[in-house]
TrEMBL record:
<protein>
    <submittedName>
        <fullName>PASTA domain-containing protein</fullName>
    </submittedName>
</protein>
<dbReference type="GO" id="GO:0008658">
    <property type="term" value="F:penicillin binding"/>
</dbReference>
<dbReference type="InterPro" id="IPR036138">
    <property type="entry name" value="PBP_dimer_sf"/>
</dbReference>
<dbReference type="GO" id="GO:0071555">
    <property type="term" value="P:cell wall organization"/>
</dbReference>
<dbReference type="InterPro" id="IPR050515">
    <property type="entry name" value="Beta-lactam/transpept"/>
</dbReference>
<dbReference type="GO" id="GO:0005886">
    <property type="term" value="C:plasma membrane"/>
</dbReference>
<feature type="transmembrane region" description="Helical">
    <location>
        <begin position="20"/>
        <end position="39"/>
    </location>
</feature>
<dbReference type="InterPro" id="IPR005311">
    <property type="entry name" value="PBP_dimer"/>
</dbReference>
<keyword id="KW-0472">Membrane</keyword>
<dbReference type="Pfam" id="PF03717">
    <property type="entry name" value="PBP_dimer"/>
</dbReference>
<dbReference type="InterPro" id="IPR012338">
    <property type="entry name" value="Beta-lactam/transpept-like"/>
</dbReference>
<feature type="domain" description="PASTA">
    <location>
        <begin position="676"/>
        <end position="738"/>
    </location>
</feature>
<dbReference type="InterPro" id="IPR005543">
    <property type="entry name" value="PASTA_dom"/>
</dbReference>
<dbReference type="GO" id="GO:0008800">
    <property type="term" value="F:beta-lactamase activity"/>
</dbReference>
<feature type="domain" description="PASTA">
    <location>
        <begin position="743"/>
        <end position="802"/>
    </location>
</feature>
<keyword id="KW-1133">Transmembrane helix</keyword>
<comment type="similarity">
    <text>Belongs to the transpeptidase family.</text>
</comment>
Length: 802
């Protein structure tokens, strides 16, 4: 008995201890579960929960940063920002989507279907639908695997944009959650409650007109809403002269980032840093007016300065336009460069396009490039128009290349300027006969062979050079590779070293290289290479951005040929102009040397007998070259040669450049029309807000007034044509109107006689009139006559004569 009691006393405490241990284990397990749950809630799933909370309570509104301005070397503004509006819609607030879509598509030139889709977009964020979902009900809801439906922490969420069948979702969950079908369906099809961009860079007056036209009022006439429209501050890029320097500047796209030209290549510098505005909203996504806003201010982009001189650029623009009209070309390109520095002071091509309306295919481009555009979509046609011929046009240089062949041969000492070659009118190389287009010349010196552009003579010169050595010169002159100029779309050209099956050099191909056939270059490559020939042999990388902007000095030039060889080549190129009576007459009074080029185009595997590229390179003064000009005509009309088509344009442009900088070049002025240094060109103001137009004119120092007989906030006409040289004794009169009425009403026909095709077109289109062209050259007569009052949109027939 005592023994049993003792056993019981021993067992009792032990059982109690076990109970305590069991309880502790259970508590520990519970604690672990709690910790795991907390970890899951606060760490694993916290990001998503925090995101949803922020999305539901805070709205972010992006603020576009103003882009930096673009200036020419003289400080003239070429591109700057103009105040504009971004037309946005909050789909959740739209009361009449069909009416709104019709207004926006009509007034903004957009497709009705695209606008309707944007203003009907569903909410993309998770929204709370029910906050009291039990665990058992949650399991049932999730078992359906409905896209866009989730349950977390007893909260039911819908993401409407992800829900594929809102009707089924609403029907199924209505019974399971004891909620009304209508409520669930409304939440499952809820529209986006943040702003959706319809179109940016909209004229302020037009944007305000759109907003006011969508005002919804109550019975008392009080405005209740604007049918979901919300206007935000925006910027629109303005180019002060429309078609001016199109290929240099480029433009900005719908996202306000740079496209083409320096707008693209220097986008990171110009674009700045966008800002953002945060404000609090309620559970329904409506802005809480009393809450504090948090603003991260945008940082404006930096300005850049180009090497371009606007006045010389204007000369070049006019020169290529006149050459294009005279020779009925596919295109004309001109480059004016400082020979020693490689700085491009002008780069112009015709046809070009309007930077203030870059999404409209230029009519002139569509006409001259019709064959290339056949079968392309509208977008593909625009892409073709945006290509800068100065850096992307690949062609065989023809006889301008002879200056490079001659330089290499002289530098290597295989010939001297007085070495003789013989031209019978042709030369046989292998199985091929190479003809001379300017001979026979009989016995002639190397100097004369280059000056007379004698193909057989150049063949004999290149045959004295080791091919490996010759091609090394070609590469040193920068051919076969991009120059690296700060413009997009640059091509590298083509330098083929064709050889026979046994590896030997193909003698025929090598021979034709001597006069620029069988290789392909770009205009910027060719002018840079020829510059090195006359610049004491130094090759300088071309640039269009000032050192001030780059923050660096120009790259050190490399010497390809000696100063002696360069001097000899300058004398040879003096003869090129001196041996041609027409070029001698054109350059009278100036010290100009140059080299012509005429080359058949290589099309579909064969040389064309009807399509040519003509070119002319010139430099001045010969004794110490300061400027060089290179002009290329693509497919001029029959009978065109480098000496007859490209040379007159290039020499005239050189003379104007020298006159403009006469104080620097010590060359006396002669009786030629030249833009004076420091002169101001009239900007293109049509379509701009009147206040912004006034700021541009004030900045340029141009006197102006607004036509008292007109009213409105937008400039619809200007009394002085775009790109005209401003006379300080005159005043430009701006006609005003609404941005939507630029094609309605009447206008007085201006006098366009004596204007070029381009200038007449810019003046008439600026007034809302259409130019109809007969002939080419300069305007000699017009119908209707000047001062006639006509409806905007009327045709003006103008006859042009050389």
């Amino acid at each position: 008995m005592n023994r049993r009691k003792k056993a019981q006393r021993e067992i009792g405490p032990l059982s109690k201890q076990k109970k305590i241990v069991l309880i502790m284990v259970i508590l520990s397990l519970c604690l672990i579960v709690v910790i795991v749950r907390l970890f899951s809630l606060q760490i694993v799933n916290s990001a998503g929960k925090y995101e949803r909370q922020v999305d539901q309570l805070v709205e972010e509104v992006p603020i576009t940063a103003s882009r930096g301005d673009i200036y020419d070397r003289n400080g003239n503004v070429l591109a700057k920002d103009s105040s504009a509006s971004a037309v946005n819609v909050v789909p959740f607030e739209v009361k009449d989507p069909e009416r709104l879509a019709n207004t926006l598509s009509t007034k903004l030139g957009l497709k009705y279907e695209d606008v309707l889709a944007k203003i009907s977009v569903l909410e993309d964020d998770a929204i709370e639908v029910d906050t009291a979902v039990s665990s058992a009900t949650a399991v049932t809801v999730l078992s359906h695997n409905f896209p866009g439906v989730s349950v977390e922490d007893d909260v039911l969420y819908f993401k409407p944009k992800s829900i594929t069948d809102p009707n089924t979702v609403a029907k199924t969950l209505a019974s399971e959650l004891d909620l009304k079908y209508d409520t669930l369906y409304e939440e499952a099809t809820r529209k986006e409650n943040t702003t959706v961009l319809i179109k940016g860079q909209v004229d302020n007056a037009l944007a305000l007109d759109i907003k006011n036209s969508e005002a919804i009022t109550d019975a008392s006439g009080n405005i209740q809403s604007y049918n979901g429209i919300e206007l935000l501050d925006d910027y629109r890029r303005y180019y002060t002269n429309g078609n001016f320097a199109s290929y240099i500047l480029g433009f900005t796209g719908a996202d306000y980032s740079g496209r083409y030209g320096v707008e693209s290549t220097y986008n990171d510098v110009l674009s700045g840093e966008n800002g953002v505005l945060y404000y609090q909203k309620d559970a329904d996504g409506n802005k809480i007016a009393s809450q504090t806003k948090i603003l991260k201010a945008p940082v404006q982009g930096k300005d850049i300065t180009l090497t371009i001189d606007s006045n010389i650029q204007l000369m070049a623009e006019k020169a290529v336009a006149e050459a294009a009209a005279t020779w009925q070309t596919k295109s004309v390109t001109a480059i004016v460069m400082e020979t020693k520095t490689g700085q491009v002071v002008a780069m112009a091509s015709n046809p070009n396009y309007n930077l203030n309306d870059p999404n409209t295919l230029d009519a002139n481009f569509a006409s001259t490039h019709a064959e290339d555009l056949t079968g392309l979509t509208d977008s593909e046609k625009l892409l073709e128009m945006y290509q800068n011929p100065a850096v992307s046009f690949i062609y065989e240089p023809g006889s301008t290349f002879k200056a490079l062949t001659g330089s290499a041969a002289l530098e290597e000492g295989v010939v001297t300027p007085d070495t003789t070659v013989y031209c019978s009118g042709s030369i046989q190389v292998g199985d091929a006969i190479i003809n001379c287009s300017t001979g026979p010349h009989g016995t002639e010196t190397v100097s004369d062979a280059i000056a007379y552009s004698c193909n057989p003579g150049l063949v004999q010169i290149i045959e004295k050079l080791d091919p490996d050595v010759f091609f090394q010169y070609v590469y040193n002159f920068g051919l076969g590779q991009r120059t690296g100029i700060e413009l997009d779309g640059e091509e590298s050209g083509i330098i083929n070293r064709l050889s026979k099956a046994n590896g030997e050099i193909n003698q025929v191909d090598y021979a034709t290289f001597s006069f620029g056939q069988g290789l392909a270059v770009t205009p910027i490559q060719m002018v840079s290479a020829l510059n090195s020939v006359v610049n004491n042999g130094y090759y300088v990388k071309p640039t269009i951005i000032s050192n001030e902007t780059k923050g660096t000095q120009t790259e050190s030039p490399k010497q390809i040929i000696s100063t002696e060889t360069s001097l000899a080549m300058r004398e040879i190129m003096r003869k090129v102009v001196g041996y041609d009576s027409s070029m001698t007459a054109l350059s009278e009074g100036y010290s100009i040397g140059g080299k012509t080029g005429t080359a058949e185009k290589f099309i579909d595997g064969a040389y064309s007998t009807t399509k040519y590229v003509t070119s002319f390179y010139c430099f001045a003064p010969i004794e110490d070259p300061k400027y060089s000009v290179y002009v290329v005509l693509d497919e001029p009309k029959a009978g065109a040669y480098g000496s007859t088509s490209a040379a007159p344009t290039a020499i005239s442009l050189m003379e104007q450049t020298l006159n403009y900088n006469s104080a620097d070049t010590n060359i006396n002025d002669v009786s030629t029309e030249a833009v004076q240094k420091g002169s101001i060109t009239v900007p293109d103001l049509v379509g701009q807000n009147k206040d912004f137009a006034a700021s541009i004119l004030n900045e340029k120092g141009i006197k102006y007034s607004f036509d008292a007989t007109t009213s409105g906030s937008t400039v619809v006409s200007q009394s002085i044509p775009t790109n005209s040289v401003y006379d300080s004794s005159t005043e430009i009169v701006l006609g005003l109107g609404d941005s939507t009425s630029s094609t309605s009403g009447t206008v007085v026909v201006p006098d366009v006689t004596k204007l070029s095709i381009q200038s007449a077109n810019e003046l008439l289109t600026g007034l809302g009139l259409n130019l109809k062209i007969t002939g080419n050259g300069f305007a000699s007569s017009q119908t209707p006559a000047a001062t006639t009052v006509v409806e905007k949109g009327s045709d003006v027939n103008v006859t042009f004569t050389p």
